[in-house]
Amino acid sequence: MPMRFFLFIFCSLFIGSNVVSAQTSSDVSPEQMVRAINYVRANGCKCGRKRMPPVDPIRWNVKLEKSASDYAREMSRTRRFDHVSRNGDNVGTRLDRVDYYWRYSGENIGLGQTSFRQAFEDWLNSKSHCEMIMDPRMKDMGIGRAGKYWVQHFGVVMPADSKRGRMRYTEND
Known about the structure:
Blueprint: H1 3-14, H2 30-43, E1 45-47, E2 50-52, E3 59-60, H3 62-78, H4 91-97, E4 102-111, H5 116-125, H6 127-133, E5 140-146, E6 149-157
Parallel strand pairs: 3-5
Antiparallel strand pairs: 1-2, 4-6, 5-6
Helix pairs in contact: 1-2, 5-6
């Protein structure tokens, strides 16, 4: 059975077709988003031509939700669709701003989708976005939406006894 069809059925069953106002961050709850993403993570999938094995579940993180929502609003306000903001900030800088002390971080962005289901399907159909969803290093996630702009932030916090040396973030395309 094709993954796209299976994902559609899964999303229909678990997410439903709730419609809310454009002021809210999404058309589904954080729990429903995590459930959909963890289903794919638990079963593995194909990202492009690469078979991705199952990985551990991911958790919702309110700091990542805030950083994702803030960046979605910024892209909407500036009408700029890019992983790097107008002033040069990247996802690492955005996570620092909300006091998420990250060891690994990542970001998926989307433009034009009218529902989480559409954004999620588009991310899974993009090799680099799908690989970010399936990255076994990522333990936390948050999603934000502003109008037609979607942002998904990922991360894992530094171990408590660690100190960060030079902070450097590079895009992993």
